[in-house]
């Protein structure tokens, strides 16, 4: 058991999380879109806390908050995000930021610790304006042209990102980029957003990988015609072809998928989409997630052969187009070991190694440094909803495990 002074202060962690819940409160959750007033208040609040952790705070030109240390020795980067999905939960993001802050408060002041934890809040992880803009900017993967083109995708205003940045006073500030070799790696905590931990009465998920996301546009071509005068036996109904295709995916994929593959048809459009017109065209957006590209390759082949079969049989044609591919991000083995070791000390070993089905900033940081993630349980597996929650005792256990994992990583 490490020195008791090097232990997370559970009451302080809960108080800080509740402070952040007080900005943009919506029912028991928050409404904190990127660059909204409550989001900016959260960034400023964090910047004000960082000196307590012996960190110098900067809010950069894309809305990232970074706390940097002047202490000699190894540096571990830790964090998450502070904005929320619209009308969503209070822990998705802030949990990882407050754990990082707590680790920095506990470890940076200690003369027995060589090195320091540096804290980051990555802007727009939730994708109001783009895709992981803050963390991608930090690793050098965002161009000025991408920011020029970015606009608010989650509101009707379509507000340009440049306008939003200037409204909140961040326009013209430099964007901070990772100093290569500065950090021994990046550690992020997050709520699980699923029910694996709760179901098995576990307290900590040791993330092994963050799954890749592959997305497809599947288009069906039939013949648009009159819904009253066209006999059933001569119709070429693209909508019916789409519906049947959806059902046959669910019938055939389970025999070819991996143990944790998930797939979703998230959007269906019928053209022209009128009650008295047989749809001449139909389209579905189809997504698959897995941490094994070989499984995805197998499923993609199956999808294509199913489409070919339907086209050959008629009466409608089917075309499959891949519109997004995402390689999975593997979490560093020594980070997994540090989290598991810390769980043995502070969570009675109630941990499990598991992939993350959701995307996180850690997958971006993993492109330039070793990275690791830990999960705490989500009550009922609910997230991206205002009722998202985690038991206080689990929040405290998670903080203790996180601080101890940071200590172990710095001591390596
Ligand atoms: Zn999140």
Overview of the structural elements:
- The protein is of the alpha+beta class.
- It has helices spanning 10-21, 37-49, 94-108, 133-138, 144-149, 161-167, 196-199, 238-252, 293-313, 333-346, 361-365, 392-411; strands at 25-26, 29-30, 56-59, 65-68, 75-80, 116-121, 183-191, 204-210, 212-221, 225-226, 262-271, 277-278, 281-290, 317-324, 329-330, 351-356, 371-376.
- The strands form 4 sheets. Strands 3, 4, 5, 6, 7, 8, 15, 16 and 17 form a 9-stranded mixed beta sheet that branches.
- A hairpin with a 2-residue loop joins strand 1 and strand 2.
- Bound molecules: zinc ion.
- Zinc ion (ZN) binds next to loops.
Q: What's the gist of this structure?
A:
By secondary structure, the protein is α+β, with helices and mostly antiparallel strands. The chain has 12 helices and 17 strands.
As residue ranges, the low-confidence spans are none
Strand content: 15-25%
Q: Tally of extended strands?
A: 17
- The helix count comes to 12
| Helical content (DSSP H or I, runs of 4+) | 25-40%
Secondary structure: elements and pairs:
Elements: H1 10-21, E1 25-26, E2 29-30, H2 37-49, E3 56-59, E4 65-68, E5 75-80, H3 94-108, E6 116-121, H4 133-138, H5 144-149, H6 161-167, E7 183-191, H7 196-199, E8 204-210, E9 212-221, E10 225-226, H8 238-252, E11 262-271, E12 277-278, E13 281-290, H9 293-313, E14 317-324, E15 329-330, H10 333-346, E16 351-356, H11 361-365, E17 371-376, H12 392-411
Parallel strand pairs: 5-6, 5-7, 7-17, 8-16
Antiparallel strand pairs: 1-2, 3-4, 4-6, 8-15, 8-17, 9-13, 9-14, 10-12, 11-13
The chain binds zinc ion.
